Amino acid sequence: MAFRRGQRVEIFRKSNDESWGKYMDGFVGLRGVVTDPDTEKNDPDALIEVSIDDKGTHRFPQDCLRTASEK
Q1: Within 10 A of 6 (CB to CB), how many other CB atoms are there?
Q2: How many whole angstroms separate alpha carbon 58 and alpha carbon 70?
Q3: Which residues pair with 61 in a beta bridge?
Q4: How many CB atoms lie within 10 A of CB 37?
Q5: Are 70 and 8 in contact (CB under 8 A)?
């Protein structure tokens, strides 16, 4: 899936990359807006910059993100 700037996403699980370890614990379940989708690569190993609601802007691997369904 290719992410787009301004798209709402959810961090739905930890990354398969073990080096992210405990860092991901505090973010799973949070939502935000894609600010830098890394459109040059769009591969699972590329990092996506996401502005997390009330938590600032962070970069995450694509394998832990999915489109957020608005409720």
Answers
A1: 9
A2: 21
A3: 47
A4: 20
A5: yes
Return the amino acid letter for 43: D
CA–CA gap between residue 61 and residue 71 (Å, rounded)? 25
**40 φψ region: left (φ > 0), alpha (ψ -120 to 50), beta (else):** alpha
pTM: 0.81
- 22-32: per-residue pLDDT in tens? 888 899 999 99
Question: How wide is the angle at C-alpha 71 spanned by C-alphas 67 and 27, nearest 5°?
Answer: 50
CA distance 37 to 2: 8
